[in-house]
Design the sequence.
């Protein structure tokens, strides 16, 4: 199904040669565990296995497991392990691949790695196993990114949507949209080549119908970006306000530990502080910021600028105040928190409470916090919801789709009647589809996608 990119493979033969250089990587976290998995991939995998097992495993069968002893270069026993052998191209990478499941002791892991180095193998680069799978046409670039988002997802919804894309549903959807545009381009070219101008009008009508359909799908996919990001990477929740209102105290209270420095001196927090956490069933990145005020201090000034950037990027912004909150129309992404209510009279608090959009807390005494958490959770529930099954999993995908959208919109918005110009926009849209799927991708793009992976993935 995803057997394209033949041309690219030819041009990237250097990369395949590199893969001939057999590499290995630890696929599980380094630490103590029941088992650890080290993978090797490349044409020398089988030979390495024979040497590692002192000749015992000289002809492993595809997809078969073996319980064997493995030895270092001095023929000393390293561990008793389970070996799984996959013969290329029917492996994760598409090349011969071996999985060594050893006992999960860092000393054993180190000995295995050292022995593999001695046998002439090299350590894998970040994401190299998945990059090989992509270069060998096992998966496309969209699927590769979905594997990364599957590993990194912090919520069950994030895992499910990534899994859906790994299985190819996003790629299939994208290929369908691309086909629609290719067919539209076919119509345009046919018309330009052979027919007289009197049929142009009718052809353009048919082409625009197809563009409309693809545009609807493109817009739908782009609309999933926000909820998908919240479900996979987590929502950004930014605390902001004037100096000394208790932002850092609230930040620490929400995190349940003293992460940010709290003092009674205005301008203590100068940089933004990001910490990943969870609120309800949501994964969030909680951000403490520098207090917003006019200042001549350079570091603080930069901090204030950064605060503004963080507020602009935020999924939810929490404005902390200590006086009467502003009555201007509530921004749906914003929550206003009146802090230091322990210092206020009851009737003052009751007055503020009349405004349902304000939550009264004392960050210091930890009162009112459950209402705040409930409010954040409610907002995240609606922001993370997405009824569309196929969702995008990276900002790169969103960018490419936006470029496609732009090309298609140009035809419709300009009420374009020149077939050559229409054909030009369709060609540009197809190029964007190809780059979205990784049919045509420069090494820079690939480096940026795969460098986000860990070694061993
Ligand atoms: N009484 C009272 N003092 C608070 C409360 N929250 C913070 N403070 C104090 O206000 C001062 C500034 O707090 P901080 O969290 O550093 O404010 P920030 O500049 O907005 O980050 C510190 O002395 C805190 O102890 C609160 O709920 N009640
Ligand atoms: Mg602070």
Sequence:
């Amino acid at each position: 199904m995803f057997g394209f990119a033949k041309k690219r493979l030819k041009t990237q033969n250097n990369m395949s040669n590199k893969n001939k250089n057999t590499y290995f990587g630890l696929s599980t976290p380094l630490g103590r565990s029941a088992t650890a998995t080290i993978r090797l991939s490349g044409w020398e995998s089988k030979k390495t296995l024979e040497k590692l097992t002192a000749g015992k495993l000289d002809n492993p069968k595809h997809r078969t497991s073996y319980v064997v002893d493995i030895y270092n270069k001095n023929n000393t026993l390293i561990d008793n392990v389970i070996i799984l052998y996959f013969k290329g191209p029917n492996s994760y990478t598409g090349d011969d691949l071996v999985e060594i499941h050893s006992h999960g002791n860092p000393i054993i892991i180190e000995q295995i790695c050292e022995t593999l180095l001695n046998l002439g193998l090299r350590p894998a680069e970040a994401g190299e196993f998945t990059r090989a799978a992509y270069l060998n046409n096992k998966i496309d670039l969209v699927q590769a990114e979905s594997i990364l988002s599957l590993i990194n997802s912090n919520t069950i919804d994030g895992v499910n949507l990534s899994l859906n894309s790994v299985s190819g549903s996003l790629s299939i959807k994208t290929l369908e949209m691309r086909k629609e545009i290719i067919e539209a381009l076919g119509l345009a070219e046919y018309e330009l080549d052979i027919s007289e101008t009197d049929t142009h009008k009718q052809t353009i009508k048919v082409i625009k119908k197809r563009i409309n359909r693809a545009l609807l799908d493109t817009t739908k996919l782009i609309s999933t970006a926000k909820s998908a990001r919240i479900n996979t990477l987590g929502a950004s929740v930014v605390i902001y306000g004037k100096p000394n209102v208790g932002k850092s105290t609230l930040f620490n209270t929400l995190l349940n530990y003293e992460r940010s420095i709290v003092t009674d001196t205005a301008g203590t927090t100068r940089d933004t502080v990001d910490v990943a956490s969870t609120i309800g069933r949501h994964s969030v990145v909680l951000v403490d910021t520098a207090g917003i005020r006019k200042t001549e201090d350079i570091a603080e000034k930069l901090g204030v600028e950064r605060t503004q950037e963080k507020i602009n990027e935020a999924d939810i912004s929490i404005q902390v105040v200590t006086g009467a909150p502003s009555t201007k129309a509530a921004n749906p992404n914003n929550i206003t928190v009146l802090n230091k209510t322990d210092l206020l009279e009851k009737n003052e608090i009751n007055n503020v409470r009349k405004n349902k959009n304000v939550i009264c807390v004392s960050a210091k005494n930890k009162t009112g916090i459950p209402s705040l958490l409930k409010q954040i959770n409610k907002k995240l529930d609606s922001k993370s919801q997405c009824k569309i099954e196929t969702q995008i999993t990276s900002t790169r995908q969103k960018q490419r789709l936006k470029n496609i959208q732009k090309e298609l919109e140009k035809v419709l918005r300009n009420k374009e009647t020149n077939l050559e110009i229409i054909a030009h926009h369709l060609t540009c849209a197809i190029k964007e589809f190809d780059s979205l799927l990784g049919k045509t991708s420069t090494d820079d793009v690939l480096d940026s996608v795969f460098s986000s992976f860990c070694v061993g993935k």
User: Anything to note?
Assistant: The chain has three domains: 3-124, 145-224+391-450, 236-384.
